[in-house]
Amino acid sequence: MATRGRPRGFDRDNALEKIMDVFWAKGYEAAQLNDLTAAVGITPPSFYAAFGSKEQAFREAVNIYVANDGSGPMRALETGETVRQAIQAMLLASIDVALGAPQSNGCLLILGVMNCQPETGPLYDLLKDLRRETMERVRARLERGVAEGDLPKTADAATLARYYGAIMQAISMQARDGASRRDLEALVQPSLAALR
Amino acid sequence: MATRGRPRGFDRDNALEKIMDVFWAKGYEAAQLNDLTAAVGITPPSFYAAFGSKEQAFREAVNIYVANDGSGPMRALETGETVRQAIQAMLLASIDVALGAPQSNGCLLILGVMNCQPETGPLYDLLKDLRRETMERVRARLERGVAEGDLPKTADAATLARYYGAIMQAISMQARDGASRRDLEALVQPSLAALR
DNA sequence: TCCTTTCTGTAGTCAGAATTATATAAATAG
DNA sequence: CTATTTATATAATTCTGACTACAGAAAGGA
Q: What is the fold, at CATH topology level, of the domain defined by A72-195?
């Protein structure tokens, strides 16, 4: 059962990378099909044959983003001896992600779908769920910190997890507003004061 | 030189309030002319005769937002004996604003124009400038705190101002994501730890 | 009263953007 | 070689959403 029919004239994975870059740079709604097809170097019918629709392409792009470019902060969270080191590493990795965006700045999961168009609701929810997952992983790490004695028994892991989720969102927003690496790194120390 | 011609059939200021509510709830791009005219109860030609264009209407809406609904945090900043009290009052006022939005949630200045459509660039910059102004007022208050001995001489007012600007942005984002008042208020205490 | 001015309602125009119909090209299976 | 299958390119189609032409209505001024 070899491949039948005319073979695809481009590499699908490679194309998906480029599509993700466009979504990352512009967000879902501002990324026009034009931009997507131009970035890959294909025409609309090829795009639809390969990815189904703009929305499905976005979902796939989010998947590879989570697996690759966007995975730094969550990996950093598992490094370090203490909670404080882990959180700090996560925040610094968030800054890397925010400044590493292709054109614009900020994290795809945070800024990819902001508008409240009725039709983009499902994609907004998709990203919102991923943000919630992120917060839960942070909470798990904080709870471990409490268990290991890094944090006092009275520390509220859920509250602090929400707090550091907020800091990461703010990093992306300020990166979008043009903040420099130095500006963003200056947010880290103040935010770590909450761990005392 | 009394008024000439047929008088307008609606109250312009009242209409502008309703227009602002729609922009606040949906953001600039998601707010369709349909929504705006329906909220006021007028037809498109009346809208254009009174406000010029969607963009100009948005600019006017931002103006009255800054003057009225959105003014709470900056007024709160001037209250309180200590810097800490002032900042805390400002953050709590931000929560009021974020939760007081008509339908959706969050601050108009923070979430009103998120997309990077080329044509919305000027409006994005308009809001970005207002956010920068906010940060500068916070910095001025922090500098006063240093002068008055509320904060150590070594405190970096610019960094802390950026930090509290970030917290307010995060409050709006989390409100948009459905956070409750309790959730948002839980962000305040951790963020105040940076003032020690 | 008649003219000028300005607003209002109906019903469009116009541009932009996602998606697709049709014909053609490039591969495998028989 | 022919048929079948799948991809591609050109050129629509379709829909949405900002904006407006035109005719009629409501005021003031001569």
A: Tetracycline Repressor; domain 2 (1.10.357)
